[in-house]
Structure prediction request, 133 residues.
Amino acid sequence: MSKRDLLERRALQIIMSKGEDGILQSDLWKELEASSRVGSRISLNLGKKNLITRQRELSDGRWTYRVFVNIRSLDIDSFSDIPCVSCDEILKCEKGGEFSPNTCKIMTKWLHTFTHSELDEENISEISKNDDS
Ligand code: SF4
Prediction:
């Protein structure tokens, strides 16, 4: 898998972790530690693959985009080890509930492992530098 593919995968995981609230593109770039130029390319590529939806939004007086993951488009094999599959609390798990993906330490740990296992900060910096030159 290329570094760009890994960066796209990490971006997708961050977007997915935001659930139905989505995430502003600028916040996504910050979490990825990527430049806006690199981030825009990632966003466009994910959009072309129909993995995310971009909605125009006015934020702090400027037009930007909020991005959401298209769950139905995801390759289920990528998420076969998601902890929810074997979790006893899945039927009680909901946003704002006693058990919630937003506060679940198991989910957070899984997302961290999933997003950081193959792409470290050095790789992101390298991609950013190459794209900014
Ligand atoms: S988010 Fe956590 S608590 Fe909820 S179903 Fe998944 S593993 Fe279980």
